[in-house]
Amino acid sequence: MSEDRLIMAGNSQRFDIENGKQIALLVAPVLGFVLAAVAVAARWYTRSVRRVNTLTEDALCLAALAMSFVVVTLVYILVFLCGEGLTSEQIRAHPTRDYNEVKRYWLRMQFALDICWATSIATIQLAFVKFYVRLYETKKLAQTACYISMALIAIWYIWSLVGWINMCHPPGRCELQSKKSCIIIGSLHVFFNAIILFAPLPAIAAVQMSRKKKMSTLIIFLLGCFCTILAVLRIDCAINIFGDVNSDPIGASWWRVCFSPIEIAFGIICCCVPNVSPTREHPSLPTEGTGLRRLKFRTTSGSSSTSNLNPATWVGGPKTQVNAFVTLENGARKMESLEGIKVTKDYQLDRGRI
Q: Could you tell me which residue ranges the Rhodopsin domain spans (predicted)?
């Protein structure tokens, strides 16, 4: 009997799923996390195949994924225990929950969510900038700009943490973030996203890429644009679409809570995809055909030869100056041999004395 009462009491403290906004909060973050996990796994798989030295970037992506899981967990807590996705009026109408108590708990969860979100975002941005340091390895000015960007991202992260800590000072008494602080933190975040989005364009424009590579680069760029748009929409204190932050703080925060894990997930994907190898490469052992395929040289009868393929060495006696061009082909042959040599010029050799 006592266990039944505890279960009933626990169920009465939870909010039921009543609308599409709550369903979106439960589904979209999980899907994003799964896609991000696949991208990180593919990146680490590629690392084991290519043996590339990108440990710092790989570790940053893995850390961002771990923090993304915490963000998704906090979203579920906000939905079931804080009524995220409902308006303040709907929460006030709940038969067993006190609105003031819910709001206090909601503020603490918001505080935790913002910290985890900023940690994930800063980690992803640092991974991007570290990649750009390698990309502009020969450009000292660009590398210096990358290191300055790293320092600015770290300053933004620390400053944001200090601002959110002040929200809950003294401990246990959390308040809404001021509009000014919210706009500054959000605007700087959008600014850094834009820098990361456009920074590699000069390097991309300077190289020749296949059509497939261009399409994949375009997709990554569009995903980056999508993340930047989410970063703009996340500034709910300046853009009132689902409600006013002051009169309906829980209702107005829906899209910020929803977009936070999605932005993290797509940021991780954008960071991982350029380093992912589509298939595992199996290096083949060198064969006779390998040499015949690749050997192409121009020589003369009077030059010092390092190969017995020089026609001038085929006969003895006095030799005339003869230019020779030899092409080695395999065509569609399955089994290659020395018969695959094709001489593309007729030689006039002076056999003379033997």
A: 42-278
The answer to whether position 348 is within a domain reads no
Tally of structural domains, the chain: 2
* Residue 327 CB contacts under 8 Å (≥ 6 apart), including other chains: 296, 342, 343, 344
In a domain, 1, yes or no: no
Q: Please check whether residues 47 and 189 belong to one and the same domain.
A: yes
Q: Which domain holds residue 328?
A: 288-343
Exposure string over 130-164, b if 16+ CB within 10 A, otherwise e: bbbbebbeeeeebbebbeebbebbeebbeebeebb
Q: How far apart are the first and last CA of the chain?
A: 114
Confirm if 268 and 68 have CB atoms less than 8 A apart: yes
Amino acid at 256: R
Return the CATH number at 43: 1.20.1070
74-114: per-residue pLDDT in tens?
A: 999 999 999 999 988 899 888 888 888 999 899 889 889 99
CB 165 within 8 A of CB 225: no
Torsion from C-alpha of 65, 66, 71, 74, nearest 10 degrees: 150
Q: Say how far apart CA 52 and CA 263 lie, in whole Å.
A: 27
| pTM for this model (two decimals) | 0.74
